[in-house]
Predict the 3D structure of the following.
Amino acid sequence: MTGGSVNHTTIIVERTYDAPPERVFAAWSSVEALLRWNAMGDGWHAAYDHFDFRVGGGDIFRFGKTGGETYVSTSSYQDIVPNERIISAGTMRRETTPISSSIVTVDLTPSGKGCRLVLTEQAAFLDDEDKPEYRRAGWSAMLDNLGAVLKNQTVSI
């Protein structure tokens, strides 16, 4: 570990889904919906210790590879415009070590009969404990999972 370093990065991940903005927004607004898609994939565990989806509310989310280290993301919701935008600010730790602080914006816009999602994370990665490419890969995997859930019309969100 190289103490005292900060790597400021902006990560942008975009997806277009064959689902209306209301359905995509709903996938972010409840624990039950989030747990259907926001783990990285097989071999990962995910759980919410706290979830309060409102401006001024926040969440505490624990995740990691099964049998490996646990990561804890603590976020507070700064702005929520139903079916259009979610902005949160938060920190992430690996076990007890702080690894990043960031602001995440999820923008939803109609696109034909579907929805275009643009996720922007403005992050400060701390002391070389995490890397932007890892975070981008994580968001990409989760948003791909979201797309798979949205395609399954029998699953209510």
Observations:
- The chain has a mean pLDDT of 93.
- Strands lie at 6-17, 44-51, 58-65, 71-81, 85-94, 97-111, 114-126.
- The helical segments are 21-26, 31-34, 132-151.
